[in-house]
Amino acid sequence: MRVEIEIERGCPAEGVETHRERFRVEVPRHVTVLDTLIQIKDDLDGTLTFRRSCRSAICGSCAMRINGRSGLACDTLVESELRRFGHLLIQPLAQMPVTKDLAVQMAPFWRRVRAVKPWVTKDGEEPSWPVERESLMEQHHVEEMDDASRCIMCMACFSACEVATVDERFLGPAALAKAYRFVADPRDSERTERLTALNGSGGYWDCTRCNQCVEACPKDVKPMEAIVNLRRDAIRAGLTDTIGSRHITEFISIVRQEGRLNEGRMPMKMKPNPLELLKVAPLALRMLRKGKLPLPYHPPIPRVREVRRIIDRKKGST
Known about the structure:
Layout: E1 2-11, E2 16-26, H1 33-43, E3 63-66, E4 69-72, H2 78-85, E5 89-91, E6 98-100, E7 103-104, H3 107-115, H4 139-149, H5 156-160, H6 162-166, H7 173-183, H8 191-197, H9 212-216, H10 223-236, H11 243-258, H12 266-270, H13 274-279, H14 281-289, H15 304-317
Parallel strand pairs: 1-5
Antiparallel strand pairs: 1-2, 3-4, 3-5, 6-7
């Protein structure tokens, strides 16, 4: 079949501004985007630049944006993209500077991964080599960290992350998933230190749970689930002095007291400072006019004891 593919190109180092070029190429059915790019490079334009290696969705080298979505070119069929979108637009990964064409500088990504100390630390010391003896663990610990261990560092989730687009301090889903892998590792001696280091700006509380990282991940790592697990572990460890942790703890407290969420009380719990409350006063007035703001205090719902029993039982099981 004959297809038309549009590729975003550019080379900042050589002063070549970002632009788009169209190529028409004859390809077999069920061909991948990567094989199509290889054919274009071999037959039409040898200067086209992109990364590739295994061609089997294992190495993660060929990650790029395909019709606006981050993913692996070797794992994406041209025919499927044309059927879904009617066109084929290939762009480099977002959040990272372009080296040339579809190849990006990976330093911003690796800087974030290194920041979470992605190695097991025993008694404050980094692992040495050669290892004197193996460290065994129980199977349930292996299963707990199994999802995060599947990450191939392709950077697709980081490219798709909505928070990374607007906040360069955010570590990103891959780095935080990697952090959880070591928080969950029973051999690591710095579990609390890791949770504390990630409790501030740029850490697990900055995730908006947009689910874009889950959609982009080619290995089902479930990075957003790992971030949620980090939040739970932080609260269990007593790290409850951030806005994110207070939102969860106060949310549960209000539901336990009244049997449902009270939007009138929530800001008072989250912003006890009167000056801070004044900032949300305009929003509160608009909600009140629309009938969306209940009174700060009202009696609990009928059978509130059943709600409390559910919450207490859940807390007891964790």
